[in-house]
Design goal:
Elements lengths: L1 H27 L7 E5 L6 E3 L2 E5 L13 E5 L13 E5 L3 E6 L4 E9 L13 E6 L2 E8 L8 E9 L3 E8 L6 E3 L1 E6 L9 E5 L2 E5 L7 E8 L17 E2 L10 E5 L18 H4 L1 E6 L10 E6 L5 E9 L10 E6 L2 E8 H4 L7 E9 L5 E8 L8 E5 L1 E7 L12 H6 L3 H4 L2 H23 L25 E3 L3
Parallel strand pairs: 1-3, 4-28, 14-24, 16-17
Antiparallel strand pairs: 1-13, 2-3, 4-5, 5-12, 6-11, 7-10, 7-13, 8-9, 8-11, 10-16, 14-15, 16-27, 18-19, 19-26, 20-25, 21-24, 21-27, 22-23, 22-25
Length: 477
């Protein structure tokens, strides 16, 4: 009888162990994107960075580069400690494009890498250009002077409905040129961007629909209380920077570090939303006596006015000694966005279980977007009264698909002589104007509660100066 009970209990615990191991394994499997293009622009050989292979764009048969009359520049001195993708660049003297075949329609991550190279063959003071992605204007009058002396990555999340994604580089005028060092085009997890979130409109919280259909530019991504997280340590190859530069004051705050296992749960934040390395550090407000601290943790971010912004906040209770003790308020631009946030409740009463929440907010004339966390009316003494693990700020596109500047894609392409671009572009420019008027009238009737819908313009125009054929002019140092 005793042996039978022992066997039954042993089988039960073995089953529990197997199920828990399988459950943990299901969350530990790394994300494998269907579309995963990594391009080393201007290089003649492939480059491997953090176990990721960037393929040279110099092969005429396999390269996504579809434009003629481009130049490549390469460093002759390879002693630099920078990643290999910054040893070369592709240079464009006229509108040129990369075309990527899309197998997995949906949101895609696009990263553009830029670094000014020391070259005797080219003066980067003459670099000034626009970049279009499937008709979205992601960069306008982007310059290679001063701000590109160290590597810079511009990152976007764009919904792709077509079977191809086109990235077009357009010099600002004939005397200028465009360039890029490397390109990433990666299909994103389906649940990375939700469609419906909360819109913080002053002291009102409203519903915001259609977020997943917007183009987003990543403006800030911070690991609160922790160190820099590199692409090698992130499930989606992102970079998370320390928050010190953006924290208004650290007085009365504490950093916490967690060495245990982060407990991802179905329906909550996944490792693709945020990796372990951002959830195992945090800043906290702690009550050490019978009174609740009268302070807030506040971060301030520079933004551009007249855009809407997605604010994604990451939380994981790695500081409390027990569930049911942590309550706090969240503020966006000084307005109450989340009252009495109870992390125990939203994580099914599990410590060290990550949770994130999204808000959309207008960028005002101040040029600053603030995020604050502080005690609520439910906060307890001798307990943690506020926590934040990570924050992301993303810019939403304006009407006409503009993420930078004031011109739509059609007007930018129309700035080049009609004979070189084709007769389609004036039509595209006219469509820009018509859609702008339509959007203005729609705003007047429906207000500004939700961001305007926008559809891609027909910017896949005939090849620039096609009579030259598929030629590449390579300038090597």
């Amino acid at each position: 009888m005793v042996m039978e009970i022992f066997r039954t209990r042993s089988s039960f615990f073995l089953l529990l162990f197997f199920l828990s191991s399988f459950y943990a394994f299901s969350f530990a499997v790394s994300f494998s994107p269907i579309d995963n293009y990594l391009v080393d622009c201007g290089s003649t050989v492939d480059a491997t960075i953090d176990n990721r292979r960037f393929v040279s764009d110099s092969s005429r048969s396999k390269s996504p580069l579809c434009s003629s009359l481009t130049r490549s520049i390469q460093l002759s001195d390879h002693s630099s400690t920078l990643p290999q993708i910054y040893n070369s660049a592709r240079v464009f003297d006229r509108p040129s494009k990369y075309v990527f075949k899309i197998r997995d329609q949906g949101t895609h991550m696009i990263r553009l890498h830029f670094l000014q190279l020391n070259s005797s063959d080219i003066d980067f003071a003459d670099a000034k250009f626009h970049v279009l992605v499937n008709g979205y204007v992601v960069l306008s009058n982007f310059s290679g002077v001063h701000n590109l002396l160290s590597p810079r990555v511009k990152e976007y999340l764009i919904l792709v409905h077509d079977e191809k994604l086109v990235i077009t580089f357009v010099p600002a005028r004939k005397s200028k040129f465009a360039f890029v060092n490397a390109i990433e085009v990666i299909s994103a997890p389906k649940d990375l961007i939700l469609d419906t979130v909360q819109f913080v409109n002053g002291d009102k919280i409203e519903k915001f629909d259609g977020l997943s259909k917007q183009a987003l530019e990543v403006m800030h991504r911070l690991n609160v209380g922790g160190s820099k997280v590199t692409p090698f340590n992130d499930t989606l190859w992102r970079t998370w920077l320390p928050d010190d530069e953006f924290l208004k004051s650290s007085d009365g705050l504490k950093r916490v570090y967690f060495s245990g296992r982060i407990k991802y749960q179905r329906g909550g934040a996944s490792r693709e939303v945020g990796p372990d390395n951002v959830y195992n550090t945090a800043r906290v407000i702690v009550s050490t006596n019978a009174s609740i601290p009268n302070l807030k943790m506040t971060w301030e971010f520079p933004v551009v006015e007249d855009y809407k912004y997605l604010v994604r906040l990451h939380f994981c209770d790695i500081a409390s000694i027990s569930v049911g003790l942590l309550f706090f308020n969240v503020y966006i631009n000084g307005n109450l966005a989340y009252k009495d946030l109870d992390l125990s409740y939203v994580t099914a009463y599990t410590l060290a279980s990550p949770f994130y929440t999204d808000f959309v907010v207008d960028g005002d004339h101040s040029g600053v977007l603030s995020v604050s966390v502080g005690p609520s009316e439910k906060s307890l003494d001798h307990a943690v009264d506020g926590i934040l693990n990570a924050v992301e700020i993303m810019k939403l596109n304006k009407t006409m698909g503009i993420l930078d500047g004031e011109q739509c894609a059609g007007l930018i392409l129309n700035s080049w002589p009609r004979g070189n671009i084709g007769i389609l572009i004036p039509l595209v420019a006219a469509l820009c104007v018509m859609l702008s008027l339509s959007a203005f009238m729609h705003k007047r009737w429906n207000g500004v509660k939700n961001s305007m819908g926008w559809h891609k313009l027909p910017t896949d125009v005939p090849e620039v100066n096609p009579k030259h054929g598929n030629r590449h002019i390579s300038v090597k140092m």
